[in-house]
Amino acid sequence: MLELDAEALYVELQHGVRSLLAEGTRPDAALVGIWSGGAWLAERLQRDLALAGTHGVISSTLHRDDFNARGLVTQDGKGTDPTQLPFAIDGRHIVLVDDVLHTGRTIRAVVNELFDFGRPASVTLAVLVDRGGRELPIAAAFAAAKLALPAGQRLRLARADDSRFSFAVTGNV
Questions:
Q1: Cα-based distances in Å from 78 to 9, 66, 73, 82
Q2: Structural contact between residues 147 and 131, judged by C-beta atoms closer than 8 angstroms
Q3: What is the per-residue pLDDT across 101-130, written as a single tens digit (0 to 9) for each?
Q4: Which of 145, 169, 173, 172 is nearest to 157 (CA)?
Q5: pTM
Q6: Which carries the bigger pLDDT value, residue 172 or residue 114?
Q7: Can you tell me the distance from the alpha carbon of 31 to that of 51, in angstroms, rounded to the nearest whole number?
Q8: Which of 13, 34, 40, 55 could form a disulfide with 46 if both were Cys (CB 3.0 to 4.6 A apart)?
Q9: What distance separates the 2 farthest-apart alpha carbons in the chain?
């Protein structure tokens, strides 16, 4: 059975994001978390790194390439789009944060959604886990861990009431 320490990986992600933010001294950089696991990570990173301002949250719902198969399914469970970008996107350096990078399709959809709000100066991707299996030419600038899982398995990030993270492997185990 696969055992991953999500809290230890979060510490690695924190160091990686700190380095990404320091590159070129980007005072205008903003964290944007992908709904839902990436949003949890961005929220905690914003607090733990003592960054000024607030983080953003972005959803892939409206730009997914499997939209016809899935239909309009909101991802927040409340019937609303969870995208919240409380700052201007134009000219800003964006550090996009997600929990698990797999095929790259969610990242593609999110970048399309981001450009609906403006034209960022740059977009850099940081993930907790890169599980391989890419279908698109997308790579993270920082991944706290890289691992391979069989195609039928999924890695899911969970957040406890005290904001601590854990992983669950679902599917054919």
A1: 30, 21, 10, 9
A2: yes
A3: 999 999 999 999 999 999 999 999 999 999
A4: 169
A5: 0.89
A6: 114
A7: 9
A8: 55
A9: 45
SS3 per-residue string spanning the chain:
CCCCCHHHHHHHHHHHHHHHHHCCCCCCCEEEEECCHHHHHHHHHHHHCCCCCCCEEECCHHHCCCHHHHCCCCCCCCCCCCCECCCCCCCCEEEEEEEEECCCHHHHHHHHHHHHCCCCCEEEEEEEEECCCCCCCCCCCEEEEECCCCCCEEEEEEECCCCCEEEEEEECC
pLDDT class for 57, splitting at 50, 70, 90?
very high
CA distance 12 to 7: 9
pLDDT in tens, 69-78: 545 455 445 5
Alpha carbon separation from 134 to 73, 131, 139, 151 (Å, rounded)? 24, 9, 9, 11
Distance between first and last Cα of the chain: 8
Q: Are 145 and 125 in contact (CB under 8 A)?
A: no
Could you give the CA distance from residue 74 to residue 99 in angstroms, rounded to a whole number? Answer: 19
Rg (the chain; Cα; Å): 15
